[in-house]
Amino acid sequence: MSLGSMSLEGRAAVVTGAASGIGRAVAARLEQAGMSVLAVDLDPDPEGPGASHRADLTEPAANAGVVDAALQRFGRLDLVVPNAGIQHVAAIDEFPLDRWEMILALMLTSPFMLAKHAWPALRESGSGRFIAIASVHGLVASPYKAAYVSAKHGLLGLVKTLALEGAGDGIPATAVCPGYVRTPLVERQIVDQARAHGLPEERVQGEVILAPHAVKQLIEPSEVAEVIAFLAGPAGRAFTGAPVTMDQGWTAR
Ligand SMILES: NC(=O)c1ccc[n+]([C@@H]2O[C@H](COP(=O)([O-])OP(=O)(O)OC[C@H]3O[C@@H](n4cnc5c(N)ncnc54)[C@H](O)[C@@H]3O)[C@@H](O)[C@H]2O)c1
Predict the structure, then answer these.
(1) pTM of the model
(2) Ligand 1 binding site (Cβ under 6 Å of any ligand atom)
(3) Which of 32, 76, 155, 160 is most exposed, with minimal Cβ within 10 Å?
């Protein structure tokens, strides 16, 4: 198959967590490339990119509903981008079980359920892709983020398994692993990080958030979206079963 025959034009994608931050930028970028996008969120924005669709992805059945909605609306599904995520910052002996369960449900079980239900359509697509938004926290840990780090490590395991199963089905599966990206998820952490680290809030960005970055800059959501568009397109064919890390040098140490 020539690379040119696999343009994103006319193809269909599901992006979760598409009302904010990285997911919103990804939905906009894929739409710009000519894809039809189901923009799934707990709190959808009808003014945002894509066709907005409300779902609480912590409920396993809602993930099957998302795939059905995309197929009903677009008649095909070529790309799934599990992105919806939340954070909880707390020491292990204070970490609430309900937050652990919610984070695992949203950030590990939801990608599994999306893959499970989307697989036949991705196979049928002929150039199906499964590209999760993981995190540098899928590769390394930080204190006070037990659930998030565990979910992201698990997500990389899922993607590796899907890559092996997808090899025969023509479905590359991968996960992008960014360092800190300028989004509401990071802004919301500042108060909790200040408490957990015993620092005033104004010192959190420099001393906690950007501390592990070799390059002391946040990543922009549009930069992550550009990587997704590349991976989803013809040149992304060989990116499967391995993390795609964009972490401002975090893991170089
Ligand atoms: N911001 C960062 O620094 C960073 C770095 C690496 C990875 N990530 C990952 O990128 C993804 C997106 O994060 P972001 O920073 O854009 O966050 P964000 O808070 O800006 O957006 C997350 C979106 O997910 C939605 N969401 C939350 N719970 C949901 C649920 N139960 N069902 C459906 N949707 C739900 C929210 O409504 C929100 O629109 C997450 O998986 C996050 O772990 C973020």
Answers:
(1) 0.96
(2) 16-17, 19-23, 41-43, 55-58, 83-86, 106-107, 133, 135, 178, 180-181, 183-186
(3) 32
Whether the pLDDT of residue 4 is over 60: the answer is: no
* Domains along the chain with CATH numbers: 9-181+220-252 (3.40.50.720)
pLDDT band at 188 (very low <50, low <70, confident <90, very high): confident
CA of 34 to the centre of ligand 1 (A): 24
CA–CA distance, 97 with 164 (Å, rounded to integer): 33
Q: Name the residue of 107, 185, 189, 209 whose CB sits within 8 Å of the most ligand 1 atoms, as the mutation to test its pocket.
A: 185
- Atom of ligand 1 minimally distant from the CA of 218: 3
